[in-house]
Amino acid sequence: MANLLKINEILKNSVHKSLEIRTMQKIDLPTVMDIEHSIQASPWTQLMWLDSTEKSDICWILVRNKALRPNGRSISVCGEIIGFIAFSLCADECNILNIGIKRKKQGKGYGTALLQAAIEYAKQYDVNKIWLEVRASNQAAIRLYQKLGFTEIDIRKNYYSALNLTDSEDAAIYCYSCKQIPQKT
Ligand SMILES: CC(C)(COP(=O)(O)OP(=O)(O)OC[C@H]1O[C@@H](n2cnc3c(N)ncnc32)[C@H](O)[C@@H]1OP(=O)(O)O)[C@@H](O)C(=O)NCCC(=O)NCCS
């Protein structure tokens, strides 16, 4: 898809030369679910992932390519899935539905790169606002969102217990405005 090519071109010209974003395929689900189970309190079920990948949501995997030179001979490229993101585009709005980075790879800028890529992609579709919800206690994610320009809009009390999840926690609703007015200097 031309738009994803554009996003990968941006990544190739950044500090993350070895990263590539690919559309998530069914074959990627076991790895994606393994990663999510190790980092999320309430990971998506296989049915949720299948539903998301098969409908019009956009599901990407973040792959880190490593050049291998077995026996010092020819170079082969091996890709490791290090993260994922799922989001939806509807009219002029985008919703970030899920994002995660493999625990051992967190804190290295990969989450920033992946979310930035989704923002750039959404902008290509003339999206006005990007929405997401996050557990109020999830400081790592909240700092990532704030760093990229998301602002807190609302708090939904006990949102996660209302979804029948075992624990009760508030959700913070964050929004990113794609048509930000540049600040005067
Ligand atoms: C949230 C998440 C995707 C961030 O990905 P990441 O690759 O670790 O993030 P980055 O390395 O790009 O860091 C981005 C910013 O987040 C913040 N951050 C990252 N890890 C943090 C941590 N452990 N504690 C506090 N802040 C943290 C920092 O502000 C960082 O910016 P800085 O390095 O310039 O200070 C990742 O931590 C994750 O997968 N968490 C579990 C799943 C999850 O909570 N998903 C979000 C659900 S809404």
What features would you describe in this structure?
The protein is an alpha+beta fold and 185 residues long. The chain has one domain (2-177): Gcn5-related N-acetyltransferase (GNAT) (Aminopeptidase, 3-Layer(aba) Sandwich). Helix content is 32%, strand content 32%. It is built from six helices and seven strands; from the N terminus they run αβααβββαβαβαβ. A seven-stranded mixed β-sheet has the order 1-2-3-4-5-7-6, sandwiched between helices. Helix 1 packs antiparallel against helix 4. The protein is globular, with a radius of gyration of 17 Å. The chain starts with a helix and ends in an 8-residue tail after the last strand. The mean pLDDT is 90. Coenzyme A (COA) is lined by residues 39-40, 99-101, 106-112, 134, 138-141, 143-144, 147.
What radius of gyration results from the CA coordinates? 17 Å
Strand content: 25-35%
What is the total domain count?
A: 1
Low-confidence stretches: none
Count of helical stretches = 6
**CATH evolutionary superfamily:** Gcn5-related N-acetyltransferase (GNAT)
CATH class, anyone? Alpha Beta
Question: What is the residue-mean pLDDT, rounded to a whole number?
Answer: 90
Order of helices and strands: HEHHEEEHEHEHE
Bound chemical compounds: coenzyme A
**How much helicity do the residues have?**
25-40%
CATH architecture: 3-Layer(aba) Sandwich
Widest sheet: strand ordering: 1-2-3-4-5-7-6
Question: How many β-strand runs?
Answer: 7
Class derived from helix and strand content: alpha+beta
Envelope shape? globular
Main pleated-sheet profile: 7 strands, mixed
The rounded distance between the terminal residues' Cα atoms is 38 Å
Annotated CATH topology: Aminopeptidase
